[in-house]
Amino acid sequence: MTTGGTTLVIGATGTTGSRTTAQLTAAGHRVKAAGRRAVPVAGAEPIPFDWYDSATHTAALDGVDRVYLVPPVGDSDPAATMLPFLRRARTAGVHRAVLLSSSAVPEGGPAVGTVHQALPDLFEQWAVLRPSWFMQNFTGTHAHARSIRDEGIIWTATGSGRVGFVDADDIAAVAVRALTDEQAPNTDLVLTGPEALGYDDIAAIITELTGRTVVHRRLSYEQMRDRLSTQMPEEFAALLAGMDRAIAGGAEDRTTDTVQRLTGRPPRTFRASLMRSREAAADAPGRSAVPVRDPA
Fold it and tell me: Could you give the C-alpha distances from 75 to 46, 79, 160, in angstroms and in order?
């Protein structure tokens, strides 16, 4: 690994961006932590950045030679915004780009799949991280976490389909290697945890470890799409509901050895991730977490 150069982390206060920033700075790398409000981040230089405001891009790219790319949230056509920025980044001296995509989106597929397809032609050094669904979706601010806390229910259209859920810390660990190793991966990397679990399994583990009854309620594709449409644009809601339908058909029933190969350690299990999250929440009063027991 090398500590030379400066990495721009876009979405530096988000789920993977915050962890990537923390791991980079802990290893002695220089980081520009980019976000809409330039929130101070320990060990990094905060910088304002908005995908939709090109006036913020020049300062963000100044002095940067590599970039971690988190696409604009909820945008069903991120390429329209991201590709002009990436061309500008290349001109500004960026030589390595690591893109956060999804295991459900192949090269050339919908949404960020178009950016994935373009990346090798833009940069000689690159990687596309394609993680499975995040374990943190059940403990943070995701809709699943909110419905668990508010209702004790996980709502999906996944049926009995299974997913190789992955811990965001493991995603960040791979991102750091992809950004800083002497040789870039120059490929896409499907990231999973060590086991494929159904949402019934997830509900059972949460129930066991927290003492609160949590159940999985199965919706149709249409019901899930309509439910999500109350929280986001209809087109993006349909995309996410379609991913649930793909899970029901077995599209995510797999595990990979990518985390082990790139980091030298096994990926964290969901049980271990949930226990770690609860411990962290106990040490930080007010932090959002799954309750330990049913409310009285």
Answer: 24, 9, 28
| Cβ atoms 125, 184 nearer than 8 A | yes
Give the bridge partners for 127, in sequence order: 98
Q: Are 8 and 64 in contact (CB under 8 A)?
A: yes
pLDDT in tens, 40-51: 999 999 999 999
Find the helix or strand (DSSP H, E) in which 90 lies.
helix 79-92
Residue pair 104/75 in contact (Cβ under 8 Å)? The answer is no
Length of the chain: 296
Question: Could you identify the residue written with the tokens 């509900």?
Answer: 203
Distance CA(209)–CA(80), nearest Å, equals 44
Give, in order, the Cα–Cα distances in Å from 92 to each of 55, 87, 115, 264.
15, 9, 19, 34
User: Residue 2 to residues 39, 49, 53, 100: CA-CA distances in angstroms?
Assistant: 26, 26, 32, 22
Burial (0-12, 13-18, 19+ Cβ within 10 Å), 122:
middle
**183 CB-near residues (< 8 Å, 6+ apart):** none
Ramachandran angles phi, psi of 129, nearest 5°:
-90, 125
Q: Identity (one letter) of the amino acid at 202?
A: I
CA 206 to CA 269: how far, in whole Å? 13
Summarised one tens digit per residue, pLDDT across range 4-29 is: 699 999 999 999 999 999 999 999 99
Report pLDDT for 291.
46
